[in-house]
Amino acid sequence: MLQRGNVCVLPDTTTDHRPVLAEVNIKGRSPSRPVTIRRRNFKAIKRHALENALEQWKWDDIYDIKEVDAVLDFIVAGITMSLDKVAPVKAITVRKNTNLYLSKATLRLIDQRNRALGRREYKVLRNQAAAGVRKDKLLSNLNAIKKANGDSKALWNLANRAMGKTKATPLPLSLTINGIDTCDDKGAADALNSFYIKKVNDLRASIVLSTPSSDICVRTDRSCNWASPRGIVLDFSFASAAKIRRVVSSISNTEAMGVDGLPASVFKLGIEVLASPISHLINCSLANGKVPVILKTGIVIPVHKGKGKNPKDPASYRPVSLLPVLSKILEKVVKADMEYHMGKISALPNSQFGFRAGRSTTTAIGTAHSKWIKAVQEGKVVGILAFDLSSAFDTVDCDLLLEKIKDLGVTRRVGDWFGSYLNGGKQCVNWNGTRSDFVDVKYGVRQGSILGPLLFLILMAGLPVEMGVGENIVCYADDVSVWTAGRDVDVVETNLNLLAAKFVEFAARNGLSLNHTKTQLLLAGGRDSKERRKRVEVKVGPSTVSPSSELELLGAKFDSTLSLNLNVDIMARAARVRANMVVRLAKHIPRGPYLHQLAKGIVLGKLGYAVSAVTPVRFGGSNPTGPLAAAQVALNDVARTLTGSLRREHIPVRDLLKSAGLPSINTMAVRSAAMEAWKAFWSRDGEEGGRNPLGLMLFEKKNGKETRSDAAGIADTLVCAARTAWNKSPQLRQARTWRAARDAAIALAEGVAL
């Protein structure tokens, strides 16, 4: 047995009782070992000091350098020299797992409390330390709210942290790979990096390319391409210093750093000096058709997925890649040229809604739902398939993507530049501050890049034509939903099997791994019996999919009735959860602008998501009923928490929401519907410069303001709500700018029911 201590009876005593002496070996918590890190204090940099330091570098010499790698090295050296003067690298000793938000004064009070000898002294120091902790925690929360800048995800994390509901999961000292634990941080970093690379290689190896169906258009030359270049050829435009200033101003001011160790704040503060040198770097890269390796190298930060995932399992970590800021600047310049060229040749299909200006998940959900309802009203059976792609952005075949880029019509140097950009990438993993070795990245569009999403859209652009579905498809990047409508279930089942076969073939041919088991199938409308519907089977690769009771599209849920009830129920539950959270948050953050910002981010961020597409929009004077009324009551409770009012005061709801600065759910829905109508009217990114799919359903003519009469009959859909908003607001119809349209939408919403 393990010896845990010694016990003995003392022989001498002053009473009839024998004293017992026990020595127990208690293993206390070992103090965390201090760690010495070397870093710069970027927050302490002043603009004028950085500019003065940068001006001391011989920037005129850069214009004699034409090799892009040498230009990059020159810029990095100049910035590094300047930083050594204004923010030199210093050794800082820190302890892991410490409360970083506590001030030095509070930490001293805690230390004095722990050393107190008398009860009275202890109680005084305990109370002082507790007050200091509360004050520091409050200040930390307020600073975090400022940094969040309205981002709902960041505000949610802050809310949970403020109430002690979650703790950041520290990275363990080791990972378990094939049953064997890694020995240190370096081993864990290398193992996780290999895991990420192997995962993509395994997905690629699982792709089986079958014999193409005769109904599928397989591109063999430019004549079978999905977008004709029309004789228009893309060449890069010159990147002036003024353009670089605009690009840098649009980059988020984060503290994240790539392999060059330079955060965005340095470029923003020093842009007046750096604009011309950076423009020379960009122009050298574009002219030579070459991207420096350092700008294609990412640092992967593993983020634990939570939800009870095993922290020693590498699959429990989501990779977040950090690229150099100069890479983002270069990609933003190229992206602007690429988007302009693609707009001129209508390169993207009208059914693609992801990462496109003027389009959103609201537009995508509302368009699909409206088309489903219209088909059902015509007495047809609607069959909907929603496909799931595994790590779609990571498995892209770069050589195939490059050919698709060239098919858009580009000059040789543009083709050479994209060839350099897509190939030769590297990545490492940062684990507890220790980096793995760099490894080559063979597949995928670079994670965390600016160009990545646009390039993925190019890869997917041929899908609607190859599947032959016309407008019966909605794509949001890698989220694909297709449908078919027929007179009965037999016809729909046949068509769905053909569509599934075509999508499987398209995915395999384009290097995309289809997760067959996660494919969703929903049947709606028609008069076929339930027994017949249950027998429907759609073959998706090696799997067979049967109809389910509901289908999820970009976060919205629909059942076989295609009603909005499921989404309203979800909204009601989410509203109550958030209302209760705001009540608890008010105990940690005082009432005022910061609590209001936090509450607005976590409440309206959820309730306002695609609100005009997933909830009934009411323009009359009727009040909400059922779950929608419950959701509004929860929002009213949030307003009471923010204003400090009580229910027994019987403040009118409209006045209550106004004093809290919160819109009602219906107000948000009306504003959203109005803005969607305005964007649809002015959209010109559809086929042949026409309107987007929502605009085609809303308006009679290509450039006309008259709405389609049949749009009014598709009740409880975005199309119907957008039509009503457009016809009710002359101010909206006359708006020529986004701001004017927003003002018109706000004015329209002020006159509707809560």
Structure description:
InterPro entries: DNA/RNA_pol_sf, RT_dom. It comes from Caligus rogercresseyi (Sea louse). Pfam families: RVT_1. This is Reverse transcriptase domain-containing protein. Residues 284-558 form the Reverse transcriptase domain. With 754 residues, this protein is of the alpha+beta class. Among the domains are: 232-350 and 401-457, no CATH class; 366-391 and 461-554, Alpha-Beta Plaits (2-Layer Sandwich), CATH 3.30.70; 565-750, no CATH class. Helix content is 47%, strand content 12%. It has 27 helices and 21 strands. The strands form eight sheets. Strands 7, 8, 11, 12 and 13 form a five-stranded mixed sheet that branches. A four-stranded antiparallel sheet has the order 14-15-9-17. β5 (176-177) and β6 (180-181) form a beta hairpin. The longest helix is centred in the N-terminal third of the chain and has 30 residues, at 119-148. It is globular. It starts with a strand and ends with a helix. The model is unreliable at 213-229 (pLDDT under 50).
What distinguishing features does this structure have?
single chain, alpha+beta, Alpha-Beta Plaits, four-stranded antiparallel beta sheet, 27 helices
Gist?
With 754 residues, this protein is α+β, with helices and mostly antiparallel strands.
Q: What topology does this entry show?
A:
Blueprint: E1 5-9, E2 20-24, E3 34-39, H1 47-55, H2 68-86, E4 90-95, H3 104-115, H4 119-148, H5 152-162, E5 176-177, E6 180-181, H6 185-205, H7 241-250, H8 264-269, H9 271-288, E7 297-304, E8 317-322, H10 325-344, H11 361-377, E9 381-387, E10 389-390, H12 398-406, H13 412-422, E11 425-431, E12 434-435, E13 439-441, H14 452-460, H15 463-467, E14 473-476, E15 479-486, H16 489-509, E16 513-514, E17 520-524, H17 530-534, E18 538-540, E19 543-545, E20 550-553, E21 556-559, H18 565-585, H19 593-607, H20 611-614, H21 626-643, H22 653-660, H23 665-682, H24 693-698, H25 718-728, H26 730-734, H27 738-750
Parallel strand pairs: 7-11
Antiparallel strand pairs: 1-2, 3-4, 5-6, 7-8, 9-15, 9-17, 10-16, 11-12, 11-13, 14-15, 18-19, 20-21
Helix pairs in contact: 1-2, 2-9, 3-4, 4-5, 5-19, 7-9, 9-13, 12-13, 12-14, 18-19, 18-21, 21-22, 23-25, 23-27
